[in-house]
Amino acid sequence: MTSKFDLIIKNGRIIDGTGNxxxxxxxxxxxxxITAILPRGDAGKAEQVIDASGMVVSPGFIDTHSHDDAYVxxxxxxxxxxxxxxxxxxxxxxxxxxxPITDGRCSEWKKASSLMGGxxxxxxxxxxxxxxxxxxxxxxxxxxxxxxxxxGHGTIRVAVMGFEDRAPTESEMTAMKTMTTEAMQAGAFGxxxxxxxxxxxxxxxxxxxxxxxxxxxxxxxxxxxxxxxxDHEMEAIQEVLKIARAxxxxxxxxxxxxxxxKNWGNxxxxxxxxxxxxxxxxxxxxxxxxxxxxxxxxxxxxxxHIQAEGAEAYAKKLQxxxxxxxxxxxxxxxxxxxxxxxxxxxxxxNIFISVAPRHPDFVGKSIAAIAETHSRDPYDIYFDLVxxxxxxxxxxxxxxxxxxxxxxxxxxxxxxxxxGVPSFGNSKPHPRMTGTFPRILGRYARDKGxxxxxxxxxxxxxxxxxxxxxxxxxxxxxxxxxxxxxxDPQTIIDKSTFExxxxxxxxxxxxxxxxxxxxEKGTITGATSGxxxxxxxxx
Length: 539
Prior knowledge:
Elements: E1 4-14, E2 23-30, E3 33-38, E4 45-51, E5 56-59, E6 61-63, H1 71-74, H2 79-82, E7 86-91, H3 106-112, H4 131-139, E8 146-149, E9 151-152, H5 153-161, H6 170-186, E10 190-194, H7 205-217, E11 221-225, H8 233-247, E12 251-253, H9 267-279, E13 284-288, E14 293-297, H10 311-317, H11 321-333, H12 342-346, E15 351-355, H13 367-373, H14 378-389, E16 394-398, H15 402-410, E17 414-416, H16 432-447, H17 453-460, H18 462-467, E18 484-487, E19 508-513, E20 516-520, E21 523-524
Parallel strand pairs: 1-4, 1-5, 6-7, 7-8, 9-10, 10-11, 11-12, 12-13, 13-17
Antiparallel strand pairs: 1-2, 2-3, 5-18, 14-16, 15-16, 18-19, 19-20, 20-21
Helix pairs in contact: 5-6, 6-7, 7-8, 8-9, 13-14, 16-17
């Protein structure tokens, strides 16, 4: 009896996502699912056939760390992600989800979310208040990709307390716990924090524990951008582990790195700490992007205390020469454990402007180079940009070493997340938004042999699916969702660079999302088969 399928992928070399060796087989798809894995030539007939001769067929890649919260509305096809093989994106990271928000905080939160596109969303969107309303909004969007939502601690804190540098009152803590509960009931997969950023930086460990306990009650995880990834990273790791123990919650550490030249090599210590914690019974996971540079918002390099009360307040303060001088001295002399001193750690020569709407001629240039061109102190250039751009400007910071990148990548527990910020308007975003996954497969697996192709795929598929409890994602197997990537292992590579970051990768033939072809040979098809995923353990 001849089987009938909606889609057959034939003649491919299957790497199934488990880490097991490849094998030859055909794949039959009906609806949005994989229904059969058959010997070559036995797949029968189908409405669509993909000939994958000479190519690898793998599960769709899962981006464990994105800032696609607004991007999935602005560009529902998520073309910059899909073209590199991503079929599922985890959003709401670093403590930044777009909701929940309150009436009195909405305008400043819209401004605070500018870098990830929040300022481009219309007034109808900004009438939303709850996390449930945000997910319901996404249900109406014709998505080309699956989305996995986290709720942001930073967002919740702004909704209740604004940007105030203090501990919450009892009633404010109750309000934050209520918002966390409502988000988890709506389908959030966990709570995220960005403890390097204000206002989350103002939170003491106990505040985070209280909210993590709420997430744990619903089977959620705790995803964190730690308080330090540089000079005080080991202390930050201990804080994460303290939260994990106290809240009895699985923890996921975002974009693990060792930042600052003087700290290079410390990945030996960080990875050992993770291993020890897992040996002791804690559920600890982490992801990585494969670049020497990170990226963030421009004001993140300021001491947190100057950022209290919001962007307009600190912009006004920074117009005072005395305050500027005091901050400069603080940055230059700081051995401060309460904040990440990015300027001291990297130097202005390694900090580049990625987006600056009011200074387009600065984009792609280092602050040191801009200062030299204008014969000015780089601190004054930086302070002026903060005043004039506030939270709408972004920076790229070169601060990691290749040895640490490769050591982290080799660790069996490491998975892959882009930490990508979409490109809007005149910008030069970090190339990770368009190149992360092909870069791993081409540069690190094939060309450098840091890891095997099978292990690289595992880090992008089954491992994140296991971590985020995406039970039908991440493995090529009957009964699983038909999220698939067909690529040429000999040619796949990222093409995006820091100079030209919007180039699409090469070597990807087809990307399939829930059984529909979302991209073919570098072109988005317009398929709208993506889904808003809600945690099955919540509610």
